[in-house]
Design goal:
Blueprint (H helix, E strand, L loop, with lengths): L6 H9 L5 H14 L6 E4 L1 H16 L10 E5 L26 H8 L3 E6 L19 E2 L2 E5 L5 H8 L5 E6 L5 H7 L2 E4 L19 E6 L2 H11 L30 E5 H4 L6 H16 L3 E5 L4 H19 L18 H12 L2 H14 L5 H24 L2 E5 L15 H6 L5 H6 L3 E8 L5 E7 L5 H15 L5
Parallel strand pairs: 2-3, 2-6, 9-10, 9-11
Antiparallel strand pairs: 1-3, 4-5, 6-8, 7-8, 7-12, 11-13, 12-13
The structure holds glutamine (GLN).
The site of glutamine has 15 residues, from β6.
């Protein structure tokens, strides 16, 4: 919808019959078609979206519409939607159809959201630029020579290009927040265990969380309160009740807060001066407004990225073992016996990056190296978690840039794995510690490219995170979100 600002505004137009859900679906499907060169969508779900739109229009007329009525949302190509295609943007799952819907999908539909299609991503969500996708890279709608970030690049692009109102992505090490930073959207990753992973294709199961891309904080809060909460299909989901995030979104107005920042993040040697200066500027303004903003020590900067990659590759190597050419996915036509079915199906079905991760993961789990890598990394994870929690004994939030720089050029880092893995430097802490984090579009470079500022807070503190995010966006957004 041209000039989309928030779901609330759309819902007003829907109830006053100025527009209908059917018209909205038609509009967005057309937009997706015209902007196909972005490569944001793997597939649109025309038929089910139109059917859902008709049924929601009826409900609106009857005054029975759900909380998300009229929300046109995309889902990342690693979230199951029964009877719809799903591939994790991999050749391995080409032609696969979901046999059931993810819990998040069921909850969206129950509240009358309309799922418009599935978005392109890095293969099995492994990457930082959406360039490992079997379907090719996503272009950044703000500058088509640049990446949209990853792994949820298509999700981010779908929102910023106005191809839908919001998107679901997944974040294992930054895959929602970094693309949100590169596209000027609001990207939110919940506490580990806040949102069910049932129906999310597993990558690193002790890290993965489903979260949102939106144009504003209010919509992130609203969608999150719908999808969060206990689920009998995922034993890692907390039974804690989910607060009404939207009800308390103005609760921090005028409140003085305690905010920490790490010198080693803000003054990191690899940080773009524009990103650094803007972060410092925001820190100074918050101080000037009477918040207590302190520099705090963080001892594990050099350890977080390696720890993340040891643990997630280990988990991935186990999770991806199910793609053996027999149970799931691609089966090589060149196989002659059982052994060659496994070997050839995997060799031909997986892309380079996925194979690299599986090999790394099997290596760190192998008998001779298990203690040196896997056990050690688990210990470091514990230290990171503890030291992060300690900060929140004294502070409400940690503020930092989301990424050290703005979106980079397509192909610029494709073959430099170390550089690519370092993309996650400011985002993996939240995944290692299991805490919620959000990227807010508060920065803009001289060449008009956006970048994000990240807020982290303690476990299950989403309510406060949304409230303070709204304050920050109201004060510092260059583009009103
Ligand atoms: N860039 C990270 C990786 O490649 C993060 C991916 C993610 O969060 N899914 O592992």
């Amino acid at each position: 919808m041209k000039g989309f600002t928030s779901l609330k505004n759309v819902q007003q137009e829907l109830t006053s019959a100025k527009i209908s859900c059917v018209e909205l679906v038609d509009y967005y499907l057309k937009e997706i078609e015209t902007k196909q060169d972005l490569n944001a969508f793997v597939e649109t779900f025309d038929r089910s979206a139109k059917a859902q739109a008709e049924s929601v229009d009826l409900k609106i007329k009857e005054g029975k519409a759900g909380k998300l009525a009229g929300l046109i949302i995309s889902i990342k190509d690693n979230i199951c939607y029964k009877g719809h295609g799903l591939s994790a943007s991999s050749k391995m799952l080409e032609g696969f159809e979901s046999l059931y819907s993810a819990t998040v999908v069921e909850r969206l539909l129950k509240e009358d959201a309309i799922i418009i299609g599935r978005t392109n991503c890095d293969e099995f969500a492994m990457g930082s630029s959406n360039e490992t996708s079997y379907f090719g890279p996503v272009k950044n709608p703000l500058d088509k020579n640049k990446v949209a970030g990853g792994s949820s690049g298509g999700a981010a692009a779908s929102v910023v290009a106005g191809l839908c109102m919001a998107a679901l992505g997944s974040d294992t090490g930054g895959s929602i927040r970094q693309p949100a930073s590169f596209t000027g959207t609001v990207g939110f990753k919940p506490t580990y265990g806040r949102v069910s992973r049932n129906g999310l294709i597993a990558f690193g199961s002790s890290f993965d969380q489903i979260g949102t891309f939106t144009t504003n904080v209010q919509d992130a809060a609203l969608i999150s309160e719908v999808i969060a909460g206990k689920d009998e299909f995922d034993s890692t989901v907390s039974k804690k009740p989910v607060p009404a995030y939207t009800a308390s979104i103005d609760s921090l107005k005028g409140k003085k807060l305690k905010i920490a920042y790490f010198d080693c993040y803000v003054n990191h040697e690899g940080i773009d001066p524009e990103v650094k200066n803007r972060t410092i500027e925001i820190i100074e303004s918050l101080r000037a407004e009477g918040h207590q903003v302190d520099e705090v020590k963080f001892d594990y900067l050099d350890q977080i990225v390696p720890t993340y990659y040891v643990l997630t590759t280990a988990e991935a190597s186990s999770n991806l073992a199910r793609y053996d050419g027999i149970h799931f996915g691609y089966r090589s036509p060149n196989a002659t016996d059982l052994e060659s079915t496994y070997v050839k199906s995997r060799s031909e079905g997986f892309g380079r990056e996925v194979k690299r991760r599986i090999m790394l993961g099997t290596y760190v789990l192998s008998a001779g190296y298990y203690d040196a890598y896997y056990t050690k990394a688990q210990k470091v994870r514990r230290l990171v978690k503890e030291s992060t929690q300690k900060v929140f004994e004294q502070y409400d939030f940690i503020i930092s840039p989301t990424s050290p720089h703005i979106a980079f050029d397509l192909n610029a880092q494709k073959d430099d794995q170390i550089k690519m893995y370092l993309e996650d430097i400011f985002t993996v802490q939240a995944n290692l510690a299991g805490i919620p984090a959000i990227s807010l579009p508060l920065g803009q470079s001289k060449n008009q490219m956006p970048f994000g500022i990240q807020l982290m807070t303690g476990e299950f503190n989403e309510e406060k995170l949304f409230a303070f995010s709204k304050e920050l966006v109201n004060k510092f957004a260059l583009i009103k979100a």
